[in-house]
Specification:
Elements (H helix, E strand, L loop, with lengths): L14 H29 L12 E3 L3 E5 L3 E2 L4 E9 L2 E10 L8 H12 L11 H18 L1
Antiparallel strand pairs: 1-2, 2-4, 3-4, 4-5
Length: 146
Amino acid sequence: MRLQSSNLYTFQKSVAGKRRYKTSTIVIAALSLVGGVGIDLWLNPNALAMFAPTNTVINGGVTTATGLSVESGYGPVQVQITSDSGKLTKIEMVRAISTGGRDAAFPLLIAAAIEANGSNIGNVSQATYTSDAFRKSLDSAIAKIK
C-alpha cells in the first residue's frame, strides 16, 4: 500500500482512499448544482422564458416583445412592449411585484418610457431599484425588436 506522505506529523492515508473522496466530492457537487437549478425553476417558473422567442409581428409592422424578468430586490419586474414602426405605443407589465408601495412607480415609468420612446428615463423617488429593474427589462424587450 502506497502512502501519500512519509511525514510523521501528517495523517497517513492511502492514495486509493483519496480517489474515492475525490469522486464523491464531484458527485455531491453535481447533485447540488442540479438541485439548485430545480429549486430555482420551482420558485421561478418563468426562468426559462428568456430562451423562448417572444417577438410577434402583428398587422402592418406592429411588433410585440417581452423583456427579461428582472429582480429588483423588492420583487420581479417584466415588461411587454408594443412597437409600431419603431415607436413605442404600449407597455404592459407582465410581472409587476414591488413591495412597500413601490408598485405605484410603474404607471409613472410606463408613461415616461412611452414619451421618451425608450429607456432613457429617470428614477421614481423611493423606487430606485424598481426603476432600474424596469429599465433593464425594457432594454431587453427593445433589443428583441431591433
